[in-house]
Fold each of these.
Amino acid sequence: MSDLENTAKSLLADVVVHGKQAQFRPHDLKFLSAYAFKAAVIANYQTLNLMPEPISTRFERERFRTSLVIPPDIRIWISSFQGHARYSGRSNPRYAKSTNNPAPLNDLDIFTHTYVIGHLVFQVLAYRFNSILNRGLRIELPKQAEVWVPASQQIWPIEAGTIAWPTKYLGPRTIDLFVDRWLGEIPITLICVPHIL
């Protein structure tokens, strides 16, 4: 984890402090996603009073610690922020229950973490079924609404090659809307049901 922090400092220093334009290649995006996921795991642990257990499993966290493998059902976006202060920082975890009524989707927990450091913004979206009986199920997480596309680029899973940063900045009036954008009714589709023998 210390190597991850040191690489982050060398890659992101001018981006965070000065908002310097950057080109992030697929290798960079994989690293940035790992950095954002690490921050989300820490934030999740800090809010366990809101949830019965962590959003990621012990196996997933251990695998990430040893090899930086991000769990498959995670979505991560990168954006940019321009606030009133020269330097900004915030960590905003959010927790919600699925609003889909039919079982088993009513057993779903949604967790998001938005991390702002200087001009850089990461947002992680994750889910977990409460019941162990449903843990083998997979869902299709929603894509971001079109209104956010000019300001927010998905970096995990990697959908594009090299991406240019920054895009349109989030400001003091829009950052809170961005933080809370996954609360409320989220369209979720069940995509994999385990075979029952």
Amino acid sequence: MEYSLYTLHQKTELSSLTLKELINKLNLTGFEVDNVFEESLKTNPSTQNIRLLIKIPANREDLLHEQLLVNELSILFLFELSNVWEHLKMKYGFLLQQKYLQYSHYQSITIQSTVSNILVYQLSLENVLIHKSPLWIQQKLINSGFSVSSNHWINLLNLVGIESGHSFQGSFVSNILDQKYYVKQLIENQWVTAKEGRKILLPKGVVVIENEKQEIQNVLGLLDFVSIEEKKNEIQSNILRLETIFYDIHENPLGLNTLNTKLSLRYLRKAFLEKLVFAWERFLTLAELTSSVSVSLKKYETKNSLLELKPNKILKLTKLLLKQTLNLSEYDIRIFAKSGFSLVCETPFSFYFEIPTSRKDLVREIDLIEEYSRCFGYDQFKEILPAKELVYSKKKLINYAFIRDFFLNHGFNEVLTNSIQDQNKQTSTSVLISNPLNTELSVLREELFSKLLEVFELNTKLGLSTTAFFEIGRVFKLSSQGILEQDKLAGIFDSLILKNSLSDNPDDKNQMWFINKGILEKFLSNFGYTDIEFEMVSNSESVFHPTRSTIIRSQNLILGRFGELAPTIVQNLKLSKTVVFLFEFNLNHFKNWRMKSVIPSYKECSKYPSIVKDLSFSIKKVQNFTEIKNKIQKSLDNLKKVSFFDIYMDSTILEKINIGIRLEFQSVAKTLVAQDIEIQMEHLREILIKEFNAEFKV
């Protein structure tokens, strides 16, 4: 809404307050000043007027009432309001009494209603003439951001709406009829014709007023479906019928939904039942003062016993909660009094305040604390710093630094992407942002592969040599226990990263799986996972290949996944000439403490020669190489080093793989003889056959 500083200055003294201080204070207390307008007054062109465009908080609809807004400003800026009329009306009270007695013999005609908790009031003005509004009315409308109409009655209705918060609807009629009206809710959808001939579909549940012929006269406050016409030559009547309607949108006793409450929200949101009488008095007084009209002595109203003013509510505020929330050592109870809250009771531990009926937004203790902080000033509070143990120190990220260095050293490049995604990627388990900046940043990501695939595809199409990427990031997902947050490590790469390890033979592509698998085993061993298993799985809905994917386990713990990219995605990316691999790990299983290892012990170098032996055999492809290596090291004496020097496959036997290992023996006490080594080699063959089902060629 817009408000004039000239009007505010008439009610109080603001000469000691600069415009910058005023705007900063409003912004700091929840009122956002969007624009400042400077212009001359209509009533006095030589005087400069300043208007502020202020955004009112959604929960403070009471501030749409001018009097309540001014009271709020007086609380924030600590000034006294000069209410001249409060003093004058005591002297002219006898004139007011005479005027009230003049209209004490109204004829009341009841509007029959089958709908409870709704109030309808209608009145007519006779001998209405169309003319321009006085300059002071035009100026006040301009001060509040309204455009001035050539029709005085439109201006008058808008003015009363500004001052009282009540909306009136007006319509010119040909005569005043003594007919009956009925208020009811539609039980089914119904088409109606508006005054200008436009067809309107009223949904089920809409509140309407009908006449004796069951013709709909208005819809929840929209008299004859139109407002007063702007053009004078279109008005053929000199009788103006006025209507106001009250409905408590907060409690919503009619059960209206968003489809049929648009009218009530637009026309009734500013209505306060306690200001209804003032609104009518103000309108009729201005009508008689500014135009020669007469008021019809017939009024129409609903008789509703369920709609009544409720007493002011009582809210409890715990003293300790006030201090802890605002970080105060002491508090000033007078600030609540300035806000219009009456202290009705105080105990050693709590306050009890009486809240005005206009403050429907105050329902909890925290609401009272927020009001105190606004009046006290947000910039006056001491900072509440988090405790030291809650600080996310760099020491806790040492494992992430190691992970990053590991993959960078193996030829990967790190990718950093936004954890917020486009709305188009929303699924049934997505976590939505309640107030997104736009649709492109409205959903939290559930996985890391989407962005990695985009980066991989772009680099591949550009012909760049860098085709191995990894990312460390957080993913979010809805589950039965609530929102699940996890830190993940994901990577994508193709066979080109291993081109130095492979020959030009196409059969060597079969070795890619095992070489890549060995890199991941090496990575896992740095966190103490040596007893890992690669379990083959099938999943047709994943980005992983449906038959060439594995789950990586350590006992009963699932560490992550590893496999080839799904064929459908490979086809879309046109990557038929190479094999693309993916991996993903849950970083909750890679804590810093798992990286701690025993301090290595050093031994004296042997002066005796070493003996090297090669051993070839075939095992199943799912076998863990690390487990084989560990078993060999524990089973043989004087073993200095063990390494895999060859991996090859037979195209006719796909479920098995042939490997070659090289064993180096050396003793620190004597020179080893061939007979001793052969005994250990035979013992090793028996272990490999028994525990790993190895097959040796004769």
Amino acid sequence: MRIPPRTPTAGLSLRAAAGALLRLLASLKLAVSLIVVLAVVLAGATLLESGALAGAMLPESWKGRDWTLWYVYHHSWFVLLLAALAVNVAASVMIRFPWGWRRLGFLVTHVGLLVLMLGAILTFYWGIEGHLVFQEGGTANTISLADRCQFTATWQGRQGVHGELPIAFTFEPGPLDWPEGKTLVIGRLAEVGVKVLKFYRYARVQEDWVAASDGSGSPAVRLGLAGPGGPMVRQEWLAADTPAAEFYIGPIRFGMQQATSPLIVEDFLKPPLTDADRDGVLSVYYEGQMERIPVGTSIGKKLRVGKTKASVEVVQYLPNAKPGLAGQFESQGTEPRNPMLDLRVYLPGSDKPTRQIAFAKFPLLNLDRVHGRECPVKFYYHHPAVAPEPGIEFLQTPDGKLYCRVIREGKIEPRGAVGKGDQIEVSPQFSVSILEYLPKARRQVDFLPVELGPGESGGPEPAALVEITAGDATEQLWMKRNDPEFGSRTIQTSQGPLEVEFVQERLPLGFSLKLLRFIHGLNPGRMGDASFASLVRLTDKARGVDEEREISMNRPLEYGKFTFYQSSYQEAADGKYVSVLTAASDPGRPFKYASCLMISLGILVTICMSSLSPRSARSAA
């Protein structure tokens, strides 16, 4: 079959159509329309971020930077709007070809607009804004991104390609709770797969305690707290050997312990006087008998417990015990801030002694879990420098009875055995009622979404129901980001334990910053912050950089692709300062600066060319 030659008419019509399309894309009406739409979008985004639309036109929670980035700047429709405006600008340049030297200003100005839109797109899509938090003396080499989440999985005790290095799974959840049925398969790496089944943007933990049907568990009491006048203002659970074993209301502490010997009740309700021995008194229990040992005169001695055949040796006394090497303890100074005894227990029928410890601050703590078996000899260590904190403490004995004592003004007031319905007076204006007592209970935890109230810009950390597949094991569990209890979980598999952590996405810097000193300036009269700055050591081994820099409120640190701003600070419990830095990286910044210069230069050239044109010269004459 012979193809007829292309006729000149067809080529002309094609060029005419292309020219018509180019004129349409370059039209002034289209440019004005796109600019008006862009201006409205930017104004709406500004109002959305500030929260001016929340509560009036939109739900109260629809506000803030996360919403603006997710629904405007990082959305595909916004990029398409910028792309349409870029096409209009490019078409208006192309339709005037050849440009000639008289249109040089027009050309430079419009190319500058194209460069500006390119810089904006680079910022929206690849810009980074995170934070870096470190304490004086601490070093950081990563930043955290608040709007992104990360699951890190680490195989414990495994070597090889992945070894003990964490496997990172990152995702961007968005500013809303996920609707029912929405799931996200993040991926699979090194025999580990992660799938998110539910996600709450702001979540709280609701815990309850129920009776354990199998007889296991910890003792738990539900307390009703009443203020002045008698009405109940708060309810709380206390459960021994769990994170709920204590809580505070102001300076008042509420605690729960579980005794392994019924004789411990005597030390709990009526502890011995310790004035006679500055190193304290050790109560030892074995086979229904108790022996009280004055520590100062008994170090290095092997003492029998009552009339039994068991003996206890006080190996050493540590006034301020701190963990050392190989499971040993050492004392930092002679001031009794954390008194501890290192003990050896000699049991009948055993050739080797059993090592135990006794802390004055944690009387029932021992090494049974370390040894993997229970030592029948129990201890309760009393020290004159360790006074019980003001509050209420409960103790359950092996027979299931619950005992109570009140500590106020440095004195212990025994309340004896208590039960459901009993009321305990803490002070003339504050009392506690036992609403429920469960001798054996198990914890029941639920995660609930939180709705932000009027005026709130942020809430608690998010929570997610995640499905972890590790080797031949699959487990679903709730996790809460950055939470000290629910932020990490360990999954037992046939290939070993896998530790999973839920955190903000961590981005490596490629170098490290060490906080040498935090500088906090106050206004005259020491009222209010005048200034604060961080003196850091910047270390980059790849570039051979090791130098001190100062980051203050008005003087950021620029290094590599990051700029660090002094954002805020906190004061830790040990008196040291914690510095909070904002870290930002904007790949579009050079293009924005270049576009400003180009647009300014283009306008200047246009003005100069207009003033030098022949028509302008004749008008001037």
